[in-house]
Amino acid sequence: MPVHRVDTAVRAGLSFRVLHPLPHTPAPAVMSDSQRRSVMDTAAVERALARMAREVVERTGGTERLVLVGIHRRGVDLARWLADEIGRTEGVQVPTGSLDITLYRDDLMVVGPRPVVGRTELPDGGIDGQQVVIVDDVLYTGRTVRAALDELADFGRPRRILLCVLADRGGRELPIQADIVGAQVPVPEGGRVEVLVPGTDGSLGVEVVGGNG
Question: What are the structural domains, with CATH classification, of the chain?
């Protein structure tokens, strides 16, 4: 499915330098094994994604007007994975897109006057009247999803929007909940959840890093 490229360079009266990141961005520094705990291995993530793909089709009543849009960075990989799984089971190619929500963050002024902005790509047919599924790796405060909703609203009016995440760690600060969840992942105080995807991290899994638990 052809896509058109959307590069946003001005928002809230500020100018920004728009860069196009390389497909494989180096992963963050790896912490010691004693500070990392695997909660989903490769097989568990693959099973979760297969189930999530089925749930997407069930919740949307099929694949008509279905669009999967991933949030940078790992949400994009997961959206493509889900699209491939739906294609395998349903025999159709579901269009995918990507969102860089940097300019829509509610802490943009804290980030600085010239943040590095990535790339947003939406299907060539746009999102008006479509059933759009936002895909992300981890759901935490809900602020990233709020930013994604704001950005989508600037590009069209979908018929419906669903939220699909691989890991829900709780800790919401906004009234936002996922429609489709791979796993609920409890996190000790001071810890975080990391989703690993082959294109970025060289492996597939979900880990809890750090914390006092």
Answer: 3-21+36-210 (3.40.50.2020)
pLDDT digits (tens, 9 = 90+) for 22-56: 344 444 445 455 589 999 999 999 999 999 999 99
Residue type, 196: L
- The token pair at 9 is 């360079």
Q: Which residue has the tokens 């709780």?
A: 170
Torsion angle defined by CA atoms of residues 111, 164, 40 and 192, in that order, rounded to the nearest 10 degrees: 20
The two tokens of residue 118 are 């990535």
Contacts of 79 (CB under 8 A, 6+ apart): 68, 69, 70, 96, 97, 98, 133, 135
- Exposure string over 17-51, b if 16+ CB within 10 A, otherwise e: ebeeeeeeeeeeeeeeeeeeeebbeeebbeebbee
User: Which residue stretches of 61-101 are H helix?
Assistant: 74-90
pLDDT, one tens digit per residue, over 161-209 is 999 999 999 999 999 999 999 999 999 989 999 999 998 899 999 999 9
For the question of whether the overall pTM of this predicted structure is more than 0.85, the answer is no
Phi, psi angles (nearest 5°) of residue 161: -130, 130
Query: What's the rounded Cα separation, in Å, for the pair 104 and 143?
Result: 10
